Amino acid sequence: MLNQYSEYLIHRKWMKEALKLSQIAGDAGEVPVGAVIIDSSKNMIAKGENRKQRDNDPTAHAEILAIREATRRLQTWRLHECTLYVTLEPCPMCAGAIVQARIGLLIYGVDDPKTGAIRTVANIPDSAASNHRLGVIGGILESECRTELQIWFANRRHSKT
After folding, report:
1. Helix (H) or strand (E) holding 84
2. What's the pLDDT tens digit per position in 76-119?
3. Nearest-CA neighbor of 90 among 65, 54, 53, 56?
4. Residue 37: phi, psi to the nearest 5?
5. Which residues form the CMP/dCMP-type deaminase domain (predicted)?
6. Phi, psi of 28 (to 5 degrees)
7. 63 belongs to the catalytic site
8. Domains plus CATH for the chain?
């Protein structure tokens, strides 16, 4: 059994992987959000970064793409033994998909004060409409996740002036 510090180090490791993906998205002109899914053996089985602009697909959020990859790889839509790491608190669409996929644990970096649907603006996992109780840990590499988003949005605003 892992102690809390070992679990924290594992969470940091996988959030760093999600941050690498978010940088790829940001460099491509997408809102910089990245996600990875690990299995119960702590192996990465799926990843995704925002691709909404590149794919002309409003559902191409990092979490959705990672969930799609994980379900294909595992050949099941039930991901109850998996952990999803994502740099930004999921939106309502992604929160719904996370609940529907029965993700075992969600770990995210920074709260989203505009569309966060896990704890900040709405609480989809704990609502009466949810048929799955989702474990949630927020704030892993929070500063790094926040800084990346702030810099990306500042650069975007600056380039439009």
Report:
1. strand 83-88
2. 999 999 999 999 999 999 999 999 999 999 999 999 999 999 99
3. 65
4. -120, 130
5. 9-121
6. -90, 5
7. yes
8. 10-132 (3.40.140.10)
